[in-house]
Design brief:
This protein has 8 helices and no strands. The protein has 209 residues and is mainly α.
Length: 209
C-alpha cells in the first residue's frame, strides 16, 4: 500500500506541474494557503461529486455549504500541507490532505481508494498476461520436443529399414550365387567321376591283356 500511496502522490504532483500553467494559474502558480482555500471553494461550487464532498468533510471536519463561505475562510490553515506539498517542501502523510490536493488539480482516479483499486486491477492483468505468455512458451516448447522426438523416431526407423534392405540384398545375392555356382560344381564332379571310372576300366582291361 505504501508504494501505491507514493505513486499516487507522484502522479498528483505531476498533474499539478501541468495545471499550474492552466486555467487556475492565478491560484496554483505560486500557491499559498489562502489561494488554495479560495480555489477549493470555487471548485466545490461547481457540482462536486460525492467522493469529493466526502474528502472535503474528512479534511475540514465540516460539510460543504454554499451559505457558509465566510465561515469557510477560517479554514486557511487546513491547506498548509497541500501548499508545502505542491511547493515540494514536504511529503504529506495525511491521506485526506492528499486527496484534496488531487481535487484541486483534478487528478483522476481519485480519491486514493479508487487509485489503489485501479493499480491492483492493472497488476492483476499484468500477472495474468505473464502467466499466459509462460503457458504459451511451455506449450510451444512441448510441441518442439514432440516434433524432435517424432523426427528422431522416424530417423531410427529409416536406419533399420536401410539395414534390412542391405541384408535382404546380401541374402538374395548369396542365393543367386549358390544357384549359379552349385550346378557348375556338380557338373565338374560328375565329369571328374566319369573320367576316373573310365581310367580305372581301361587300366583293368590292359592288365588282363
Amino acid at each position: 500500500m505504501n508504494n501505491t500511496l507514493e505513486e499516487y502522490k507522484k502522479a498528483i504532483k505531476i498533474k499539478y506541474e501541468i495545471e499550474k500553467d492552466g486555467e487556475y494559474f492565478d491560484f496554483l502558480y505560486h500557491p499559498s494557503r489562502g489561494k488554495l482555500r479560495d480555489l477549493c471553494w470555487l471548485i466545490f461550487e461547481d457540482n462536486p461529486t460525492q467522493d469529493d464532498l466526502k474528502v472535503f468533510r474528512n479534511l475540514l471536519c465540516v460539510d460543504f455549504d454554499y451559505t457558509q463561505k465566510n465561515k469557510f475562510k477560517n479554514q486557511k490553515d487546513k491547506f498548509r500541507p497541500i501548499e508545502t506539498f505542491f511547493k515540494g517542501e514536504t511529503d504529506p502523510t495525511n491521506i485526506d490532505a492528499i486527496n484534496l490536493a488531487a481535487v484541486l488539480v483534478d487528478f483522476e482516479p481519485r480519491p486514493f481508494k479508487k487509485f489503489n483499486e485501479k493499480c491492483r486491477i492493472e497488476e492483476a492483468k499484468q500477472i495474468k498476461n505473464v502467466a499466459k505468455d509462460v503457458t504459451v512458451e511451455i506449450d510451444s516448447n512441448g510441441i518442439e520436443e514432440n516434433v524432435l522426438l517424432k523426427n528422431e523416431n522416424e530417423e531410427s526407423k529409416e536406419v533399420p529399414e536401410k539395414e534390412n534392405l542391405m541384408l535382404n540384398f546380401k541374402d538374395l545375392f548369396s542365393k543367386e550365387m549358390v544357384q549359379k555356382i552349385y550346378p557348375r560344381k556338380i557338373i565338374t564332379i560328375a565329369v571328374g567321376t566319369v573320367a576316373l571310372v573310365s581310367s580305372a576300366c581301361l587300366y583293368l582291361v590292359q592288365k588282363k591283356d
